[in-house]
Amino acid sequence: GKYWSLAARLKSGIASNPAFQFSFDSSFFSACTCLQEPAHHTMGKGDEDIDPNAYDAEALSSENKSIVMGMIKQLKPSASGMDLSRVTLPTFILEPRSFLERLTDFMMHSHLILDVCDAPSDVERMLSIIRWFLSGWHIRPKGVKKPYNPIMGETCRSSWDHGDKGNTLYVGEQVSHHPPVSAFYFVNRKRNYVMEGHIHPKSRFYGNSAASLMDGKCMLRLLNSGEDYVLSYPSYYVRGILIGTLKMEIAGKAEVRCDKTGLVCELEFKNKGMFRGENNSVSGKIKRGKDTLYYIEGKWDSRVLYSEGKSGEKSVLLDVDPAACPVTRAGFEDTSAMGIHESRSLWSKVTEKLTSGNVDAATEHKFALEDAQRDGAKARKAADEEWTSSLFVPHADGTYSFKHPASGAYTTEEERAEYEKQWWALTKQGKLSTPDGTAP
Fold it and tell me: What is the pTM (predicted TM-score) of this model?
């Protein structure tokens, strides 16, 4: 009530302010050295803002606060939260990279999952997967930022070189615009795992906070054991939009489940309440049937412990201190070698202008991309044509699968090298959803 009254009393509009002209088309947030073909790789602009130990709060200037207030004027209250898909977004909230690239953050601690297939028991494999799953949440930009909303048909590729443990390859594609859906696929042929899934962020506004409800699933498959681990995601929240310090939080329930072994890990991400609790906390249980094997508790941005259900003896599950848990960043081809549909190439003009502080030019380039996407949709509607993604196949249950998956366990180095060579060639393909498949 008081938040809406405050918003209603705001008199100054900002429709003519170019610093405000960004939209919530998909989500308020979202949160390499390559074998064979790619020869040169750079981190690229924007990477210096990605800090594994960044503080997730931001004090807004009076000017930026007034811009946020103007955004609130566009909203109306709703018991389930106001949909933000049509709300313009101020530029100071943008992170200079695409959401498809942000998905690579979950492999910055990829060493934690390299040996999962070698674990001697199903329980130890589950613990390894949970350790890796929890390690990705503390990777975030400085302050409260969101990446670009990908253009439908946009793709992103990267890889990690693990020496004698092979290469982890990644490709993502924006497979839908309304609703916004990003599909992704990771594979390490030598270490016998693949991971694929999709994310459909649903943005909501609740007064002094906004949320990105992370709908979708991720499946991690161990090729040598035939075990499939299905993972769900917690949600992102930004609090302090009207009152207090602007702060990003992660909250809600997540699950890691393997039907073959009967193991389930139930996790809950929590933050400080009125009288108790701590920010960035997580707790959970690993169960088989009705039996609780382990309890999990701690802070996902520092240290997480686990204890046996019977003895209660605690051990460290995850410590994200850089000395204990080093970061391995994704590597990319040089932008000049990328196709126009690949993220860093597609958004290069916007990124260049944002990082140099030229907001008006960044706005102009971003509008051109979004207008081209809308023109493509109109052209397909007029021609009665359906959009078909380049790299992923949609299924009736709303999931997506990669068109060129790895099949079977690792055999020889020759087979691995051939698969990776073909993978780089196949994932080079792509087309944008613009009228002629090119970017303006």
Answer: 0.82
